[in-house]
Amino acid sequence: MLNIGPGPDGELDPVAYDRLKEIGNWMKINGEAIYKTRMYKVFGEGDNIRFTQSKDGHTQYIFFFSFPKKPVTLKNLSLRKKCTIKMLGSNATLKYKILPQGVQLIIPEELEKAGKYVWVLKMVQK
């Protein structure tokens, strides 16, 4: 699954160690969005956005497989007026708007450097 396997000498290629280190670093930041979570009421939106939620349903996670360069409107996301949204790996609190067609998330460009490969937002509903 990770395309990692030993060579004829039984050793892993140095690239495999780099890949495993990158995965470990990503998981240190974003693992909470995977472990002990459940599927949200929908799997995702489009090709590049996926959702999970905590077991109690109070926290949702949004996975972006490419960093959004402009505001994103999510049609399948339920949001209460009192909600805190943060990008994992960052302390910044994100702004959002509840619109008739869904929830619009405003993600500042500078947060792109807070992640790598997949960016994860954590929404805690109160």
- The gyration radius over C-alpha positions equals 17 Å
Shape assignment: elongated
CATH topology: Immunoglobulin-like
- Helix share of residues? 10-25%
Instruction: Provide the residue-averaged pLDDT.
Output: 91
- CATH-defined superfamily: Golgi alpha-mannosidase II
Number of strands: 8
Sequence of strands across the biggest β-sheet:
1-2-3-8-5
User: How many independent structural domains?
Assistant: 1
Percentage of residues in strands:
35-45%
Structural class: mainly beta
Task: Kindly report how far apart the N and C termini lie.
Answer: 38 Å
CATH class descriptor name? Mainly Beta
Q: Write the H/E string, N to C.
A: HEEEEEEEE
Please count the helical segments: 1
Provide tags for this entry:
mainly beta, 126 residues, Immunoglobulin-like, three-stranded antiparallel sheet, 37% strand, 13% helix, elongated
Overview in brief:
This protein has one helix spanning 14-30, and strands at 37-45, 49-54, 59-64, 72-74, 83-87, 95-99, 102-106, 119-125. It has 126 residues and is mainly β. The mean pLDDT is 91.
